[in-house]
Specification:
This protein is mainly beta. It is about 15% helix and about 40% strand.
């Protein structure tokens, strides 16, 4: 049975600005803030410094997801 994902976040560029400083892409979905805090914005193997629609379609196919809703503002 196919699944429907309630939301999908596409990330074009990991480097950005926020209240606690700038972030820089480390690759493989990781980012580091100016403060030294590191975090993963998307799972390893889904992209280097972006998670784009073509990668999302592959992940959806691999996990039997028929539809996903992209939330944007």
């Amino acid at each position: 049975m196919k699944k429907i994902d309630a939301h999908l976040h596409l990330v074009r560029d990991l480097a950005s600005y926020k209240g606690n400083g700038r972030s820089n892409a480390l690759g493989n979905g990781l980012v580091v803030w100016d403060s030294g805090f590191k975090t993963r914005l998307f799972p390893a193997g889904w992209g280097d410094d972006a998670f784009r629609a073509d990668a999302a379609r592959k992940v959806m196919e691999d996990h039997d997801v028929a539809k996903a809703v992209q939330l944007s503002c």
